[in-house]
Design brief:
The protein is of the alpha+beta class. The chain is 27% helix and 11% strand. The protein has one domain. The N terminus is likely disordered.
Length: 179
């Protein structure tokens, strides 16, 4: 178990952190942890995997090459003190990130910003012309911005492994930067 975490995986550093984790779970997350953005792993190779390994590359404004480069993501992360990293059921990380982001914004965390997992599927096909048709619901994935989801999730005590066949469990993650 990660230091400072209880059996549900929630950070027990203070009441505010526990509240953030409970809010994430209340909007659909399986589990959540408050993390330091300095502990979120970014690297250039992640976007290369999007370009040379994902059929979604370039398919929407929420995918590379339209998303921030890893160095831009790192700079942005450095402007925050904490974030909520959460595990989500398949196909829900983007919705959860947007809902939690909105709740936190309305609660006074004006810098709240969410990231989901995988390609955006709000428009089929995406017109690929800014502005986005759904800026209120569309968010890039963590990996599209250069975040190493495997290393970040593992660093914070989540289980995630490479899916080798369709019977292997799949784990999806999202992130909401708080303040």
């Amino acid at each position: 178990m990660t230091p400072g975490a209880n059996q549900a995986g929630q950070n027990v550093g203070n009441g505010s952190d526990r509240h953030l984790c409970r809010r994430a779970i209340s909007v659909g997350a399986v589990d959540a942890r408050v993390v330091s953005p300095s502990d979120i792993v970014t690297d250039v190779w992640v976007r290369w995997k999007c370009q040379f390994g994902c059929g979604g590359f370039g398919s929407s404004l929420m995918c590379p090459p339209h998303t921030p480069q890893p160095r831009q993501t790192r700079r942005m992360l450095n402007g925050y003190k904490r974030a909520v990293l959460f595990e989500a059921p398949p196909g829900t990380s983007g919705r959860i990130a947007v809902e939690l982001e909105r709740e936190l914004f309305l609660a006074g965390f004006y810098k709240a910003l969410g990231l989901g997992a995988g390609p955006c599927n709000l428009c089929s096909p995406c017109p690929l012309e800014p502005p986005c048709r759904h800026p209120d619901r569309a968010r890039p994935s963590m990996e599209a911005c250069g975040i190493d989801v495997y290393a970040t999730a593992r660093r914070h005590g989540f289980r995630i492994n490479v899916v080798r066949d369709e019977d292997d469990p799949q784990h999806y993650f999202g992130l909401v930067l708080v303040d």
